[in-house]
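Key result, reporting period 2: structure in, sequence out.
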């Protein structure tokens, strides 16, 4: 039996079909990428670690809290965009326990519990008037932002943060689907080390982000 040679057009069609099949197989095996967001100004605990060290091991003497977080769960730094809890309703303070605010009550896409730990986290210097910038890579929208500051006299180097340790200093209205939700905050009476806790209510579902930023009011 004589083999019939393929034409150039036939070879091209066959190659395209094989390539398409291969690509579909790769897409089927690829993990689903999750894109969310965080506060980049003043930078949150894990986002700050990422900015200083990338995905590599932090230097223990220079950045002990990032070092401990990396060794407990490196994904708490690498998955910096997913510190959220779903379906908390309006009474989210009853769902997210005291001492677990910075980890969204242990929910989210990995174990963020190291972010709750008191200690000498790197701080951002701010004034009594400062700006909060939430970067939303997924453009989920925001129904609102609530910005809290730890009370004067509370020491986040040694104490876990509870809801009674926080004072609400700003609540915004709704933001459209965009990359940044920015709000200016005016305060008085704060000095020294504090934690700014930003709660971001996404618009696409009942999904709230709990974002802790260590600051120095100077």
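The corresponding designed sequence is given below.
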């Amino acid at each position: 039996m004589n083999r019939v040679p393929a034409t150039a057009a036939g070879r091209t069609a066959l190659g395209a079909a094989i390539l398409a099949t291969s690509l579909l197989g790769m897409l089927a095996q690829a993990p689903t990428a999750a894109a969310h967001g965080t506060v980049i100004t003043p930078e949150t605990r894990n986002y700050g670690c990422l900015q200083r060290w990338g995905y590599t091991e932090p230097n223990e003497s220079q950045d002990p809290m990032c070092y401990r977080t990396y060794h407990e769960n490196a994904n708490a730094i690498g998955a910096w965009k997913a510190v959220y809890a779903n379906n908390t309703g309006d009474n989210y303070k009853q769902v997210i326990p005291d001492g677990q605010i910075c980890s969204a009550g242990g929910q989210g896409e990995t174990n963020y519990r190291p972010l709750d730990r008191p200690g000498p986290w790197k701080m951002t210097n701010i004034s009594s008037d400062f700006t909060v910038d939430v970067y939303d890579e997924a453009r989920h929208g925001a129904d609102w932002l609530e910005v809290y500051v730890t009370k004067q006299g509370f020491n986040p180097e040694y104490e876990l943060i509870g809801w009674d340790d926080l004072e609400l200093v700003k609540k915004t209205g709704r933001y459209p689907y965009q990359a940044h939700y920015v709000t200016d905050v005016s305060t008085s009476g704060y000095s020294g080390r504090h934690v700014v806790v930003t709660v971001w209510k996404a618009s696409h579902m009942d999904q709230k982000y709990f974002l802790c930023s260590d600051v120095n009011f100077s």
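DSSP finds five helices and nine strands in the chain. Residues 8 and 14 are 10 Å apart (CA to CA). This case is discussed further under Risks and Mitigation.
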